Amino acid sequence: EEQRLLLLQSSSLFAPPEGVKLSYGTAGFRADASILKSTVHRVGILTALRSLKTRSVVGLMITASHNKVTDNGVKIVDPSGGMLSQEWEPFADQLANAETPEALLSLITEFIEKEKIPFDGVQTAEILLGRDTRPSGESLLEAAKQGISSIFGAMAHDLGILTTPQLHWMVRARNKSMAATEPAYFEQISSSFRCLVELIPNETKSNKMDNRVVVDGADGVGGEKLEVLKNMLTGLVIEVRNTGKGGGLLNDGVGADYVQKEKVVPRGFGSNDIGIRCASLDGDADRIVYFTVSDNSSSRIDLVDGDKMLSLFALFIKEQLSILTKEGNENPNNNSQARLGVVQTAYANGASTDYLKQLGLEVIFTPTGVKHLHEKAAQFDIGIYFEANGHGTILFSEFWLSWLEARNNEFSLVSEGSEQQKAALRLLSVSKLINQAVGDALSSLLLVEAILQHKGWSIHKWNKLYQDLPSRQLKVKVVDRTAVTTTNAETIAVSPPGIQEAIDAETAKYSKGRCFIRPSGTEDVIRVYAEASTQESANSLAGSVAKIVD
Ligand code: NG1
Ligand code: ZN
């Protein structure tokens, strides 16, 4: 009864905005920050319930990633460090849209019973809280705390300003009883980077490679954190621009989303940077793309996207695996081939898929949204996933990692310093460097840098792994985007009837044509993606399919 009163009292302070319906989309709730207080308060309550239910530490992150600075958002981090279980998403929607404190209370009561959430006053809940640099973050975080403290036995730890992947990493670490602080995070990724650099083969060490990279911090949290991390590294010079300290506005003409979609340089980059390796983070530092300033126009870029990062990582890991399992070595038990797989979405450039298949890799497709990719990647011994926009990571199974640890220990006894041991150590370092909870721009950055140094490659050499097929993305505003439904990892439209046939007929007119449509999960639009052998034909195919949709 006391619990009910507390919830009613707390909720009456956070009335929901009128006439707005919010939904827990691909990346939690997102909206203009001014209407989000009640939603965040309620997500605070839900996060406490999630912690009680899982009897583990969970997280709550306040961010709107690459969206404009006046937007904000909130999402829940599950005990594994991954996204909130999809089973709970509909309930999050109901909570956010309950009109009165009484309606809210009865929803919560029902849900507690249905989910058998231990509500005995004995079980406690613990929630780690983080936010990005948005000015609205502070008061929204306060609303989250009040939501959490309206559940008896729930405790919030405010970790202040963090990148999204840092919070995911810390939640995962806490539940594995590892140190879950920011210094521990920096220490782990900087020391595993150092290991990879120490293991660079002598042949490439002598290559005079450019060890400088210039990073656009999107005027957000990533730039700020990278300023700290860069001082913990040797053998790599990182220059950070758009750190947010110079008065620039978050995501405004800067950031990975802008760079990838517009294919132009971010603010603060130009003709002085021609030939230099550049990268761009998004507003909460879970995405990264590389680029170089194009030499015929100082505002255009050559983009090195998520697909190419995936390809570089896949190539490196495959090479290390083949050293590790080379035949004719002294150990007859060494026949354990790791299952290496890659996961992409339909937006992956077709040339990247061809390249990966030609490497002999298993390539799987899922619908858009990292929760789908992550789930599939987790089914391999080593699963690599990336969206073309630069969000992704490499997952190592616990089972395979312990096998690898054991191999490494054997090597230490019988063949210390052998090529095989080096390969084992490199793979172990990669598993520590790259965020196991979620895509992380900072760890992806360091892994790219380590691999380029390992191979003695410039960004141009990397970019030539394959040549992107010309592509074009369009969005079409429609009255009802739910009219379009898809199947086969979004590559085939099943409704409205007849539309797929029309798309097929159009696509057949182009050499290397590929085209699909899908409803966006974050905007009120239908997205059209087209690829073809020339830019003109990709544009024309996208244009005619957009007309079909309209
Ligand atoms: P939607 O709006 O569903 O296409 C976009 C991105 C996704 C993902 C989500 C979450 C594209 C084509 N889509 O989803 O990859 O990043 O936002 O932020 O880039
Ligand atoms: Zn992001």
Q: Strand sequence of the main sheet, in spatial order?
A: 1-3-2-4-5
- The CATH class label of the largest domain is Alpha Beta
The mean pLDDT is 94
- The overall number of domains is 4
Shape: globular
The number of helical segments is 19
Q: Biggest β-sheet: count, sense, barrel?
A: 5 strands, mixed
Oligomer: single chain
Rg computed from alpha carbons, rounded to a whole number of angstroms: 24 Å
Q: What structural class results from the helix and strand content?
A: alpha/beta
Q: Kindly, what is the distance between the CA atoms of the first and last residues, rounded to a whole number of angstroms?
A: 54 Å
Question: For this structure, what is the CATH homologous superfamily of the largest domain?
Answer: Alpha-D-Glucose-1,6-Bisphosphate, subunit A, domain 3
Bound molecules: 2-acetamido-2-deoxy-1-O-phosphono-alpha-D-galactopyranose, zinc ion
CATH architecture tag of the largest domain? 3-Layer(aba) Sandwich
CATH fold descriptor of the largest domain: Alpha-D-Glucose-1,6-Bisphosphate, Chain A, domain 3
Proportion of beta-strand residues = 15-25%
Care to give the gist of this entry?
By secondary structure, this protein is α/β, with parallel strands linked by helices. The chain is built from 19 helices and 19 strands.
List the helices and strands and how they pair.
Elements: H1 2-12, E1 29-32, H2 37-54, E2 57-62, E3 71-77, H3 89-97, H4 101-114, E4 125-131, H5 137-149, E5 154-161, H6 164-175, H7 182-198, H8 202-205, E6 212-216, H9 221-229, E7 237-241, H10 256-262, E8 278-281, E9 288-293, E10 301-304, H11 306-324, E11 340-344, H12 350-358, E12 362-365, H13 370-377, E13 382-386, E14 392-396, H14 398-414, H15 419-433, H16 441-455, H17 459-463, E15 471-477, E16 485-487, E17 492-495, H18 499-507, E18 514-519, E19 525-531, H19 535-549
Parallel strand pairs: 2-4, 4-5, 6-7, 6-8, 11-12, 11-13
Antiparallel strand pairs: 1-3, 2-3, 8-9, 9-10, 13-14, 15-19, 16-17, 18-19
Zinc ion (ZN) binds at residues 65-66, 282, 284, 286-287.
